[in-house]
Every structure is written in structure tokens, then in C-alpha cells.
Amino acid sequence: MPRTVVVGIGNIIHGDDGAGVVVARMLRDHPRLPRETRVIEGGTLGLELLPYLQDEHRIVIVDAMDMGEPAGTTFCLRGEDVRRLKGAWSVHQLGVADLLMALQLVRDDVPGLTLVGVQPKSTDWRTELSPEVDGALPKLIDLCVEESHRSS
To answer: Domain count of the chain?
Structure first.
């Protein structure tokens, strides 16, 4: 059966920027996550993740996304919608967008790709999530679980 990998991206010492990593940690033993789904804490790695993703059937990236919406708003973008994103939607200067471009270069077919995100309130130096982003964690988990069950 084709495998899905869920990758939590972010920096846990920059407040809401760490939301993707927090979600990855919560998903590790989630009872509804398919057994064959792999979960990776990608942290602040960017292109370094390429070897871990290039052979996967489906990739779900969880990240803080600055989309200009109220803090805690969740997003779920698939396929071409992810590839069409322009501008600095990720709170990271480099990394996720570069990783997606590199995947397109090393593969003839880009895997099923989903970006699950949350609008951050603050990415200041701190280890806690804002109440808004913390409150969005259950929705982010549900979105990741749903995506891991998708066949295409």
C-alpha cells in the first residue's frame, strides 16, 4: 500500500512557529492514524528533508502559515493549490517552498501533496503556543488524519 508521510515543520522556540512540530508529536501515537503513515518532526530542516520525502506516495506538511487571516485559522491546501502559492506564506524565509521545488526537480511525478497550516499570532522567542494556535491543534490533527486516509 502506498505510504503517507506527515512532516511537522517549525521552530519550537519561536512560539506559534512550532505548531507543526507540536502536531507531529501529537500524531505519533494517534489511534486513527493509519499504521503505515510515517510522522517526521522536520523542525527547521528544509532541503535536508528531501531524501526522506522523495520516494513517498503522499506528503502532508504541517506548518505555520501567514495568510493574513485571524490567528488560529486553519488551512488545508492540496496539489496544485500548494504549488500555486506565491509570496512568503510560510513563516520561514526558506525551507518549505524550496523543498517543494526540489521535489519537483528530483521526481517525474510530484507526490500527492497537502499543506496543513495555521495562522500564527506570534513567532517571538518563547516555547508556548498562543491560545489561538493551541486551540486550533485538534483541527490540525483531524486534518492530518483525514489526509493520511486519502488515496489520491
So the answer is: 1
